[in-house]
Design goal:
By secondary structure, the protein is an alpha/beta fold. The protein contains 17 helices and 9 strands. The strands form 2 sheets. The protein has a 7-stranded parallel beta sheet. Strands 2-3 form a two-stranded antiparallel sheet.
Length: 331
């Protein structure tokens, strides 16, 4: 599929593209822990989601622990919650020196590549997107998300050293996703969303751009995701990543972001995943969705979505209400 041409017509379809994969555990009876450990089960979960909801594209699990685990980070698993990194592994130059760049297949990375290969066999009526972490967000998991911000000021060379290694790996990992059949890759760079313009310009944007330039083809495009609360002040640096589409969280007024993004770039977002999909009601989800659409739905480059990945235990009726509200608005 020529995904650059797909981008030109994606918004006109009026179909939503929520980050919707983990709630498939409720459709399949699979626990989260089983799901994140088996590529075949992940693909079946993605197929179950695609069968239930008419999404613009199918998206793989947004598991932000996978790449850090491959580098050696400890990870906490649960039957009901998404895995989380539980400790830093790089705090000084000696630990940076000993940090090896993994091979694709280390940890659970091979499982996630296999997910895409299997999902492409099961889902043939829409594009399939893989997911990876952005370089600064991955470095933050290796160094601790609070500590890395201080180290950007106090030991910037240490941070750049980690960023260099994670960028090398993410190029290999994203390439493997592409070669397994991914039509696109959603790069999640949320940790960069609280940086200043100069800081994101030094510690995130150039590394993101390197990954995109090394991997993207006309058949595999990148969507850049950032759910930080400072993204309205970071527009230039975010655009400088070279991504063709952008996905933003509910911490910002998306109608203001639409004013800053060129009309030939897609903008996606941003119904609250925790406050609405997870803990809201069908009525509140409807109202929140119609509110976002009322502010943004008239833009020719807008696609309604969740603000980030929808939690596994989000009530199915809330997700149904989101899709019903989209149909209501566009009808």
């Amino acid at each position: 599929m020529n995904m650059i041409k797909w981008l030109e017509t994606a918004a006109a379809s009026k179909k939503p593209m929520p980050i919707l994969s983990f709630p498939g555990v409720q459709l399949t009876g699979i626990s989260v822990n089983e799901l994140v450990s088996d590529g075949s089960l992940q693909a079946k979960c993605m197929r179950a989601v695609a069968d239930r909801w008419d999404t613009l594209a199918s998206v793989s699990l947004m598991d932000l622990s996978v790449e850090a685990e491959a580098f050696g980070s400890p990870v906490r698993f649960s039957d009901v919650e998404v895995p989380t990194v539980s400790g830093a592994i790089v705090t000084d130059e000696a630990e940076l020196e000993g940090l090896a760049v993994p091979s694709v297949g280390d940890g659970r990375t091979g499982i996630y590549v296999e997910t895409i290969r299997e999902a492409k066999k099961l889902i043939t009526d829409r594009p399939v997107f893989a997911g990876i972490l952005g370089p600064y967000s991955l470095a933050g998991r290796l160094m601790d998300l609070t500590e890395i911000m201080m180290l950007c000021y106090d030991e910037p060379e240490l941070v750049h050293g980690v960023l260099e290694k994670v960028t090398q790996f993410q190029i290999k990992y994203a390439t493997a996703m592409r070669d397994a059949g991914a039509d696109g890759i959603i790069m999640a760079e949320p940790a960069a969303g609280i940086l200043s313009p100069s800081m994101i310009g030094e510690f995130s944007t150039p590394y993101v751009r390197r990954i995109i330039e090394a991997v993207e083809t006309e058949n595999c495009i990148f969507i850049y995701h950032n759910c930080g609360n400072s993204t309205l002040t970071l527009t230039k640096e975010i655009l400088d990543t070279g991504a063709r589409a952008f996905h933003f969280g509910n911490a910002i007024d998306l109608s203001e972001m639409l004013k800053l993004i060129p009309s030939d770039k897609l903008v996606m977002g941003n119904v609250d995943p925790a406050g609405q999909f997870r803990t809201g009601t069908p009525q509140s989800v409807r109202e929140a969705t119609l509110d976002v659409l009322g502010k943004c739905g008239g833009a020719p480059n807008f696609i309604v979505s969740s603000g980030c990945d929808i939690p596994p235990a989000s009530p199915i009726e809330n997700i149904d209400a989101f899709f019903a509200a989209v149909r209501e608005y566009y009808s």
